[in-house]
Amino acid sequence: MDVLKHKCFLEELLFWTIKYEFPQKMVTFLLNMLPDQDYKIAFTKTFVQHYAFIMKTLKKSHESDTMSNRIVHISVQLFSNEELARQVTEECQLLDIMVTVLLYMMESCLIKSELQDEENSLHVVVNCGEALLKNNTYWPLVSDFINILSHQSVAKKFLEDHGLLVTWMNFVSFFQGMNLNKRELNEHVEFESQTYYAAFAAELEACAQPMWGLLSHCKVRETQEYTRNVVRYCLEALQDWFDAINFVDEPAPNQVTFHLPLHRYFAMFLSKAVKCQELDLDTILPDQEMLMKLMIHPLQIQASLSEIHSNMWVRNGLQIKGQAMTYVQSHFCNSMIDPDIYLLQVCASRLDPDYFISSVFERFKVVDLLTMASQHQNTVLDSEHERSMLEGALTFLVLLLSLRLHLGMTDDEILRAEMVAQLCMNDRTHSSLLDLIPENPNPKSGIIPGSLSFESVLSAVADFKAPVFEPGGSMQQGMYTPKAEVWDKEFDPVMVILRTVYRRDVQSAMDRYTAFLKQSGKFPGNPWPPYKKRTPLHPSYKGLIKLLHCKTLHIVLFTLLYKILMDHQNLSEHVLCMVLYLIELGLENSPEQESDEEESAGGQERCHDSWFPGSNLVSNMRHFINYVRVRVPETAPEVKREPPASTSSDGLASSQSSRRKSLQRENSGTAQVFSLVAERRKKFQEIINRNTSEANQVVRPKTSMKWSAPGATPQLTTAILEVKESILSLLIKLHHKLSGKQNSYYPPWLDDVDVLIHPEIPRYSHGDGMTAVERILLKAAVQSRLNKRIIEEICRKVTPPVPPKKISSAEKKTLDKEERRQKARERQQKLLAEFASRQKSFMETAMDVESPDADIAMEVATSEQHVSEAIYDCVICGQSGPSTEDRPTGLVVLLQASSVLGQCCNSTEPKKLPTTEEEQIYPWDTCAALHDVRLTTLQRYFKDSSCLQAVSIGWEGGVYVQTCGHTLHIDCHKSYMESLRNDQVLQGFSVDKGEFTCPLCRQFANSVLPCYPGNDVERSLWQSHSNKCMQDLVQEVEDLQEQLGTFPVSISSETNLSKEMESVMKDIKSTTQKKYTDYSKSPGSPDNDFLFMYSVARTNLELELVHRGGNLCSGGASTAGKRSCLNQLFHVLAMHMRLYSIDSAYNPWRKLTQPMQDKNSELVSEELPEVPVLYRDVSSLLLIQILTMPQPLHKEHFTCIIKVLFTLLYTQALAALSVKCSAEDRMAWKESGALKKNTSSGEKSWEVLLGHVISELSKGKIYEEGETEEITVVNPDSVECYLQQFCLPFLRITSLLQHHLFGGDLPSCQEDEEFTVLASCLGLLPSFQSAHQFTSASCLDWPVPAFDMISQWCSELASFADRNPDQVKALLIQEPKWDLPRLLQLPENYNTIFQYYHRKTCTVCTKVPKDPAVCLVCGTFVCLKGLCCKQQSYCECVLHSQNCGAGTGIFLLINASVIIIIRGHRFCLWGSVYLDAHGEEDRDLRRGKPLYICKERYKVLEQQWVSHTFDHINKRWGPHYNGL
To answer: What is the arithmetic mean of pLDDT over 356-380?
Structure first.
């Protein structure tokens, strides 16, 4: 680090730029001159010269993030140019400077390593807790280094320069063994350190990425020299490291580090040397002693992984699990676990196999478990961990022997295997697959996912599942799922185990595999992981096969098979599965076909030195082992038996000779190592056999003395077991055990010799343990005739057929047990099925929201006819009973303000979201706007109180009431609310606002609607048709309206019921904003409340009609009716409406049913006239009439009211029609009507009536104004059609009302006969006539002579026309055809929206918003969270949701492509309706893929908006505090 000497202005400038931490303006200034070539070179040299100074400033900086970005901003422009980088490397020693600066930077945060020998260690490592590592301060320098190493010429210099390599290895060794974990054995660790993030990031960025960069230049034979250099200095650094930590032969117990970058450099360069450079592996491998040392730490990591998953490190907290997961996670695995396993494979292929296998079991601490005795003492492991550690050891061996990632697979095969493994665990989206497939961390090397090979492999192994939509609202993304043949042929459990971050993913893969086999009918039961054939080994690694053919492994396999057969403790199916897998691997990879024919059968007698005669698994399988001497605790059952008289030591290992043999076999290396190998092998075999008196004197090698628990071993004694089994016989017995039948195994080749010639039979490729055993026995027989013969012999011998009488009591017990178990199982199945069906029926009733079309027979209040009163179940206290005045029951309801109806338009073409300046949306033609205009016009000319009864409000801000159908006692509900209030758990709703979730189905609600104490017997009486004449009924209706005070629940006596009705009415009022309830000129007038109340009924009826698709053709099957609370709502409204008395003089009923006597008195009065009857909205009149009648209403009165109102409606239709046709037509109709007037059916002919209307209206100045819109209505059919269309909306509303008040189904019909069906359903059609001669007029039933009535109504218009001729026509009710409410149509491509809106300025604040959003209901552009448009603490989105949707807003966030829903004081993220080509969302547009509209999703959104189910379907709601 020399002193800087400045010679020119540029150097001075750069110095101060660095000193002030790269101010943005200076950076821009310096970079702007780069196009000048001379400047560029001069600047680069100056930059390199200041490199050390940059590093020092960066270390001191408080804003290191900003500074880092600015440094890289400069350096990336200088070092990405290969020519420039090479020049600076040659002239300014760029590489030396970089490596030295990095080394110097790290030296500032070194601490003494505590690995291995804590006291005497000389090794230093980086301290991961330092800011330098925690904040990644080093990354700009490392990224520069990686950048220049991507240039071939620069990397070549680096790899040739021995001094640089030494320095670099020195740098890497700072990370070797960092972040050491020590296992907590007593207390739980107090403070969980999170330093491991820093450690993993540092190894990946500072060590692995430069390594991948260098590897990318070692691809061809000519680069062999580079590899030799790296390997040489790497080994030197490793040797120094072993010396520094004072490592001999045993790793220190209970500690592990996941960071061994030197080992991984060594491994990756070896792999490259063999794969690409055709180097002979043995020429670059170190001696045996070094290999033994090299394998220890990677093996320690594998054992520790197993310990961590066995919960042995639980006292170290969650972070240790985090490390274990990060180590195998997709971004790290190919720089960490893959090189480690490869290095272990290399060591295993070159070391003595017995030594290697025994090391594995010793590292995994399960040596003591591998004894034939049924009881044993494990000095280093608690028994609860034994099983999972044994599973871990065997699984590790399977991985070690099966993986071929570095041992011969091509890049494409690797990619395919990785992809299959990920897809088998779970269906994946395209982007998550890209993320999960490990790639070289260095971006400039190797396969880049997303490349051609990625896509072609993906299409070869997976099918695309387009996004699907459950009505429940959980939206799927487009997923890739494995093809059937992949499950069949390529599913590789080994690869899955290697790549799973969470253990549950292995189970998930197996479950999916099981499901596939069941579905395709290949295997019905629970399959075992399939055995998969492997890619052939590269010749350099052939030595790996020796592991499968060494006596130690065979002894372990034999012992485990025996223990499983004898049901010893701590063994599992997984253990057996792995044992069989290893045997199968051994049979697949046997060294050579042994010529076993010459061997006499006496060969078995020859071996006296050990368990098995040779090392070949094929022949060892058939070797019988007669007696084994074991060391057991005195309490063990084996001790009791007398040893057989003929005990000889044949078949028992004699450890002396085994050691001698091993000494002869080894022929290189040093003597000390031999003794180590021999010690370990001897100790290992003795622990397995415990068979000579020497076992007591075995002393562990020195370093391990620390951790054998002193004095823990109990008294051991020697026992001799009679075994008399071979691996083959154990397998056959296991088959019997697994099948639960005697003699279940029958050699298949006895029936079909072909089996031996073509052993690849598909029926063996999938199945359970029995299939695996059969497959293994078949392979053993194929490989050797002797085996085949012995298998046949064993099968003959195993169990001579037993006469059935002699079942011993013990066996009887087990048989009974089996039977009992079977029965219990069946019983359990039955119970479960019953439970499932119960649950299903609950789901169907409770979760109806999720499926709008399901048929749910859940009539809320209308129980069977013969029950005298409606019975309700309270879902809180569980009691059933009627609703009474003292203890009323209520329905759980959600009240919400809604402007959905107001969004209906009278055009069938849905509006589009504007995406250009030209396109605009004008809200003048919406239902809400038109109703608004009408009301204000009426208020200009007529008396206010009468105006307020001539229309309905609630098109905007109307109150919609919906229920989940569950009932509860109102007092129970109050205590439930209390408990919610005291419950401090954060809920997604506010209890203070009365919000809660239904205690049964958890549906969101905010009020309780009291059920009126109803008597069901009456209902059947009301429905009987009476024969009273129309006149009497009309009179009765009038009388009933007069007796206002007599409401069945008298208001004077305050009962609980009436109190609750009042409180729910308050709730209904407060649901919507004041501006939507106050329309009167004099504020607070009772007329206002009157209007509001019947409009609530209107809103709910209209919305139900919308939910049914705008007509009633589908009949009564819709759930809207079943789940409706209109009946209860009507009672509440009626009770309140009857508090307002209608002055009998103004009662509209009289105007409809009696010709008025005195016509002139009106004109004298000063005030404004009343609204003419023909201007009144008939549906509103209907609700007023019904709600002011005493409840419960009689059906005959209901029908009477409808008949009277229908006459008015019909007259309105005729009047509207008359205005529409031309003057000539009018004359023609007038005359033809006059001719027929005196016929008998004159009152029921539209021609006559139309003629009469025209002649009456002609008296005023109605037709004089200029013709507005003419329709040429000439032929009678079109007139009839017009009249029916005009009357239909009223008939629909009335039919719904009748359906709710009196029960009874709605009939279903074709669209063209809807009118006739509804008319007859309502009792308007006296007798149903045949369709061809049917006219709408035949439904008329005039209470008084038609012509008098019509004349009277028309005269009101005529007198109005004299005063205001211009308004007469405008106010005549024209029923436009309202289309169903729709959201705006969105463009196909998201880019269209993004380009237009993300730069658009806000109309309020004229700035471009930071978070622009657009309302999908009306297209308004708003600033999300923008303080600029805030009004009285409400941000613009919240404000707009109140104005546009009465509290419900649907906004598309332009910069994120997601939709948010605002509902009152809460909001939620709904998801996106734009997906990419792979069916995935791209939230926040992070991936930048082109997005296209997903019509189905948008339909779901619209459906939820129209049906008001946002609250029920979307789960994640939070408060927005008006800040959106």
So the answer is: 87
Q: How far is Cα 526 from Cα 905, in angstroms, rounded to an integer? A: 59
Whole-number Cα distances in Å, 663 to 596, 672, 701, 1282, 1354: 28, 12, 18, 110, 125
Least confident of 73-87, 569-583, 590-604, 1085-1099: 590-604
Q: CA 1485 to CA 284: how far, in whole Å?
A: 50
The first and second tokens of residue 265, run together, are: 């450099």
> If pLDDT is split at 50, 70 and 90, which confidence band does 100 have?
very high
3-state SS record for 1228-1266: HHHHHHHHHCCCCCHHHCHHHHHHHHHHHHCCCCCCCCC
Residue count (the chain): 1524
CA 235/CA 283 separation, integer angstroms: 13
Q: Retrieve residue 252's tokens.
A: 């220190």
Burial of 823 (0-12, 13-18, 19+ CB in 10 A): exposed
> What residue has token string 């250099």?
229
**Residue 1329, pLDDT score:** 53
- In what helix (H) or strand (E) does residue 170 lie, and over which residues does it extend? helix 162-173
State CA 15 to chain mean position distance: 53
Pull the structure tokens for residue 167.
């320095």
Confidence class for position 860, pLDDT limits 50, 70, 90: very low
Alpha-carbon distances of 1016 from 883, 1012, 1124, rounded to whole Å: 13, 12, 18
Q: CB atoms < 10 A from the CB of 1407, how many?
A: 12
Question: What whole-number distance in Å separates Cα of residue 1301 and Cα of residue 1193?
Answer: 8
Cα 611 to Cα 1473: distance, rounded to the nearest angstrom: 69
Q: Encoding tokens for residue 301? A: 């990591």
> pLDDT at residue 153 above 80?
yes
Looking at every residue in the chain, the average pLDDT score rounds to 81
The CA distance from 33 to 1195, in Å, is: 92
Confidence of residue 517 (pLDDT cuts 50, 70, 90): very high
What SS3 class is residue 593?
coil
User: Among 177-181, 349-353, 1112-1116, which stretch is predicted with the lowest mean pLDDT?
Assistant: 1112-1116
Residue 1044 sits at the vertex; the CA angle it makes with 1039 and 1046, to the nearest 5 degrees, is 100
Rounded Cα–Cα distance for residues 329 and 317 (Å) = 19
Q: Which residue has the higher pLDDT, 771 or 471?
A: 771
- Of 375 and 311, which is predicted with more confidence? 311
Q: What is the pLDDT of residues 154-209, one digit of tens each?
A: 999 999 999 999 999 999 999 999 999 999 988 888 888 889 999 999 999 999 99
Angle, helices 288-309 vs 337-350, to 10°: value is: 130
CA distances from 642 to 562, 625, 634, 719, 722 (A): 21, 19, 14, 9, 11
The residue type found at 1337 is A
Rounded average pLDDT over 235-259: 92
Write out the DSSP string of 282-304. Answer: HHH---HHHHHHHHHHHHHHHHH
Phi, psi of 1519 (to 5 degrees): -75, 145
Residue 520 neighbours by CB distance under 10 Å: 12
Question: For residues 43 and 33, what is the distance between their CA atoms, to the nearest angstrom?
Answer: 10
Hey, how many other C-beta atoms are within 10 angstroms of the C-beta on 1487?
14
The whole-model pTM stands at 0.78
Tokens of 1287: 């009357």
Residue in the block written with tokens 């197993």: 306
C-alpha torsion 630→636→641→644, nearest 10: -10
Tell which phi-psi region holds residue 690, choosing left (phi > 0), alpha (psi between -120 and 50) or beta. Answer: left
Give the C-alpha separation, 1137 to 1094, whole Å: 8
Question: pLDDT band at 839, cuts 50/70/90?
Answer: low
CA distance 84 to 44: 8
Contacts of 325 (CB under 8 A, 6+ apart): 501, 502
